[in-house]
Each structure stands twice: as structure tokens, then as C-alpha cells.
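User: Hi! I'm working on a homework problem where we have to compare a predicted structure to a textbook description. Could you give me the structure for the chain below?
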Amino acid sequence: MTALKLETFLEKLNQARELDDIQNLIVVLRDHYSVKHIVYRWVSSDGERYSCGTYDPVWVQRYMDRKYLRVDPVVIGCFQRFHPIEWKRLDWSSKQARELRRDAIAHGIGDQGYSVPARGPNGQFAILSISTNCNDDDWAAFTQRNQRDFILIAHYFNKKALDLTADRTPDPPKPLSPREVDTLTFLAMGYGRAQVAEMLSISEHTLRAYIESGRFKLGAINTTHAVARAMSEGLILIGGSTRAVNSAWPGRATIPPRQAAE
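Assistant: Happy to help. Predicted C-alpha cells:
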């Protein structure tokens, strides 16, 4: 968009009075950039989900039915980062992620994608995603040319969504037990579940129970969301983590290799 057109669009977004108004504006946005899809997805701190965008409802329902949210590299990547993400640079190596990618392309989502994470108070989280079909060089030029616009638009979409849902402020999260704090802290540091279970001298079954109870207290939709919310609420702290690892895993001179949180 030119500066004037972008300013006009943001003003219209600022004047939106209903969530349906955001849906209408996102269609205008898609048509302006001549891409296949633009989608805004929200996850509140109590696990409430909302989305608007141009995906086919058939794909939206399939995504929910197959529980792709739990394995989606785009969602996981945006939880873990604060800057825009190129979909092709994410980790699609797992069987579930590869299945999701094939399924999405088959349903017309596009073979190129770009997402901008946005965050609000009390663990609120959102993603603005743009996708289409084109070659790598054209897509790189497109995203580089429009990156500033997309970051600004994501911020304004999220601000408006927060304004429109201000009366849905969730209850504060319930306090975590010491074991739940340990579990989420080590996962936040990047250790895999097997490593965390060994460090805490518990079985993976017991570890899973701590993760699930922590998720329930935090109102999180998955483990990554639980970690993100626990960090945003100050319930877990990563500073001083080497000391925590050494005390939990005595006799080890070095910290074991880190893996992606499961």
C-alpha cells in the first residue's frame, strides 16, 4: 500500500465496531495485495479462539477436526518468536507437520506463507498470516517490500480485537505447583520431555500429568501456549536456569543438549 492508502485502511480498521467489520476489512486487504489468503487468528489467555480471514470454511473445519493446531509449525513458531516468520524456514520435518503442509496446499492455502505474531496483555496472542502461490524469488521480494505494512497491520488488528473483546477479560491464572513450575521452566528452556522427566527423576507419564495440570490452570490450548502464558505472567523465570538444571540433575558437569519443546 502507499502511505496514504495504508493510513486510510488503518483508519477504517480503527473505526470498526464489530468483529464482522474486521472480517470485511481482511477481504479488502487480501484483494489489495493480490494474494490467495489473509487470516487473523487470536488465542486469548484463557484459551478462547477467534479467527477471521479468507480460508475456505471446509479447510477451517478440517484443520479443527484433525487437531492441526497442536502440530502447526506456524503457530508454534510464532509462539516462540516475536518477529515475522517465513513458513518455508520453519521446521516441517515431523510426519504430522508434513501431512499438514500437504493438506493445506491441497485445500488451496498456497505454497508460500508469511506470519506476523502479535501479543497483548495477560498472555493474549495472535497471528496475521498471508499466503499465496508463487516462486521463491517473487515471494521474497513481496515480503521484503511489504514487511513494514504487515507488522503495522498486525498490530492494529490485534489492538482492535482487544478493544472489541475488552469485556472478555479472563480470570487470572491459578497458581502453579512447584513441580508444574519446574516442568514448564525446563520445557521453556528447550529441553525435550524425556530429558525433563530424567532431570526431575519422574516417569514421562507423571511428567505428562504435570504438563496437563499446568495447561488446565493456565487455560492453555497446548504446551507451547502454556509455556508462553506462564512466562508472560511471570510464573516461570528463565534467568538463573543453569543453576536450576544443575540442582535438578546433580553430578552432571554440563547441561545436556537442548531439543525443541514438545
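For your comparison, note the following. The first strand starts at residue 37 and ends at 43. The CA atoms of residues 42 and 48 lie 8 Å apart. Good luck with the assignment!
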